[in-house]
Amino acid sequence: MTAWRTEGGTDIDRTRPLRFTFDGRTVEGFAGDTVASALLAGGISVLGRSFKYHRPRGLWGAGVEEPNALVAIAGAMPNTRATQVPAADGLAVRSVNAEPSAENDRRAFIDAFARFIPAAFYYKSFMFPDWHLFEPRIRQMAGLGTLDAGLRTPSFAEQVNHHCDVLVVGAGPSGLLAARKALRDGRRVVLCDDGRQAGGSLLHRAATIEGRPGVEWAADVAAELVGAGALVLTGTTAFGIYDHRLVGLSQTGADAAPDRLWRVRAGAIVLATGAIERPLPFGNNDLPGVMSAEAALVYLRRFGVAAGRKVVVATNNGLAYETAEALAAAGAAVTVVDYRPDAPVPAGLRVLKGLSVVSARGRGAVRAVRLSDGSALEADAVLASGGFTPTVHLYCQAQGRLDWRDDILAFVPGRPVEGVAVVGAAAGDFGLPEDLADAARSDFGIVAAWPKPRAKERVWIDLQNDVTAKDVELAVRENFVSVEHLKRYTTLGMATDQGKTSNVNGLALMAEITGRRIPEVGTTTYRPPFTPVPFASFAGARSGTRMNPLRRLPLEGEHRADGAVFREYGGWLRPAFYGAGPEDARIQAEAAAARTGVALFDGSPLGKIEVIGPDAAPFLDFIYYNTVSTLAPGRCRYGFILTEAGNIYDDGVLVRLDDNRFVVSCSSSHVAGVHGLLEEWRQDRFDRRRVFVHNATAEMATLTVTGPRAPALLAATGLDAALDDAALPHMAVVSGAFEGVPVRIARVSFTGERSYEISV
To answer: CA–CA distance from 48 to each of 98, 118, 131, 194, 276 (Å)?
Structure first.
């Protein structure tokens, strides 16, 4: 791939050069570049390695759809798309899933063993002699970027709640038009777009709107919106639609500003989310240098970077011709391979009609393509356009259902959803809105170019997760013919891009193999988030002690006076041991005291949850693995709680004070969880008037006296309670008093010695 800088580039400022490093190599760029555009301009074609086979991968897209160019930024989050990271002076960028670099990955040899690790190999391979011999190594190789354990964000992400009459998602021509109309109708409008500026496709596609160039029209409309009081959020992704038109927005902070999470409640939502270009299926279509035709136009027009000098534009539709004409005008030698036999041929372009690309050739990067007539073309860039998939994720999250349109070979929004409208390319209208009277109409015109079974060479369906056409065929042979089963068996669409470029091709291949139509195969469930959202944005300022404040014992002062050394256990600051000297020696001395004399332990953080009412016993029978209802009043029993999956969640001692009153003890770190679990099941399965749950953990301090001399110590304190074996046998409880204050004493031992838990 021999990309090069051209004149122009609307997004870059050539008077402000910058430098950063990629895998230790210096890269030059300009202010306004993304990391991806600067790498492309610098002639760096291998930007990463594939997830499974460690094949070299280059740029495919120019935005959120990018499946290959995931990078790690020093001091920032890993697995960030290079297409969305602004280039900056001094930035240190590394490829992920490659060591020591993307160009020279020591695990590249894995691709030679691809036949032994097909889809779902981990379900049926390496079982002899024992899976656990292989599992650690396989797990070590899994994953992409690695999170820096020392990463600290300079500021907390902000969180904002907002209300509006109309929320428009997408600031392309359709979104801008919808926002302007709503604002002129007197509505309160919020407009968001994941790009750094409003305009969408107008930023790279030529258009004249209302007598002005499209990019100028977009800037003027955005300025009008802001001036009239609309809230325009750029660099902001709508990642999910939830109940009652609640929309989550993730805004990336610019110029060291913190990220911001918006929760917007909208009266109406307009989705102008555009469409994503699909790859064409042909052999070795994952080689660096094979990229989206639409993305190539973005890099040329916005960043002044031509994708190659010998360019093959492979297309099954009419929208790729603007890319071909623009690159030819920039000086590239362009050949269009148009799958349509009756395609109109514009003047000045070499067009091969009715042919298709069978395979790409090259080692480490594309060097040529082989066509369906057996001929070959030299190429250092193959710009593929397999049609466009409307971005319907948010519509489906709003409970929308999709319809299939044969004329555009894509799923589009079907039945209306209350309060949600879909416009523009997201609705399958790939031209400019009809409301813009002087907008030029585009001739889309598309023919099918779906993957075919039994291909001789490997055809990649999911570029990030290394899912090939043969993997889909294997899934069908093994009877995974449900689209949801296909997804999970092959991991098709389960990568960080969530199948934005791969899902429809995968569905088409499944349909071909099983003899069904694509809409009969169906689609997988679209779930939020649309793109990854940092956990820090959801946490906001709720981190560390702001999230989980450190709790302290009532007797902390007394413990410190006795020389206690404190540690954090389960969110509580508690004594770890007492006195000076080596830690191990002090702990052993305390253990010896519990065995031969007497020791005191502050167990106040242990959970004390009261369950009260006529249905308390059957309620606890339902919650605990043990049968609790047979426990006699005044007695204790050890028990444990299971999750719905049958795993042990927590264990502890249950105390029955009388027929209708129990005390549930649980570990200190699980108090909130156990209390929440009890309350959830109480409200879901039981009569809330007949059983009550009360968390008394913070109301009562608990001291445990343990050891052979424990009775003598308690007798010396003047504790008013019968502590002999007849009155208080093991696993029993009695009431007493200390200096007139009621206490509860349980004969429970966790040391193996005689112990008394005293709660007051």
So the answer is: 7, 21, 30, 24, 22
